[in-house]
Structure formats: C-alpha cells, structure tokens
C-alpha cells in the first residue's frame, strides 16, 4: 500500500473487521503488517485459532 511506502514503522489495521475475509483483505490488499481485533474474540463471533487457520490456508504467514 502507499502508506507502507511512506513510513518505516509497522502498519497495523485496527477495528471494523466483521469476519475472516476482512482480515484476509487487510493483509493481502492493504498489505498491513498486523491486524488488531478484540470484540470478535471477546463476544465469541470468531475463534483466534480458526482465523489463523483461515489466513494460513489463504497464503498469509501466521504462527499457529
């Protein structure tokens, strides 16, 4: 993304994700270094393990 080219620090997407695909788009299209989320996990909308597997299955490098 243009932002990644302008700054020398990690770019972190924060807020607004509603499903697994939102995270995938942030990593693949916006080229962010990390994503931050809380409510999805606190309210059991999404499991961290499931999200990590989904991202890994779609070519994003994650620690499992």
SSE blueprint:
Layout: H1 2-6, E1 12-14, H2 20-28, E2 34-36, H3 39-42, H4 48-57
Parallel strand pairs: 1-2
Short description:
This protein is mainly alpha-helical. 44% of the residues lie in helices and 9% in strands.
Structural class, from helix and strand content? mainly alpha
**Oligomeric nature of the chains:** single chain
Low-confidence segments, given as residue ranges, are none
Write out the strand line-up for the largest beta sheet, numbering strands in chain order.
Answer: 1-2
Number of strands: 2
H/E order of the elements? HEHEHH
Percentage beta strand:
5-15%
Radius of gyration: 12 Å
What is the end-to-end distance?
A: 26 Å
Task: Report on this structure.
With 64 residues, the chain is mainly alpha-helical. The model has no long low-confidence stretch (mean pLDDT 93). Strands 1-2 form a two-stranded parallel ribbon. The longest helix is centred in the last third of the chain and has 10 residues, at 48-57. The protein has one domain. The chain has helices spanning 2-6, 20-28, 39-42, 48-57; strands at 12-14, 34-36. The chain is globular, with a radius of gyration of 12 Å.
Structure characteristics:
64 residues; mainly alpha; 44% helix
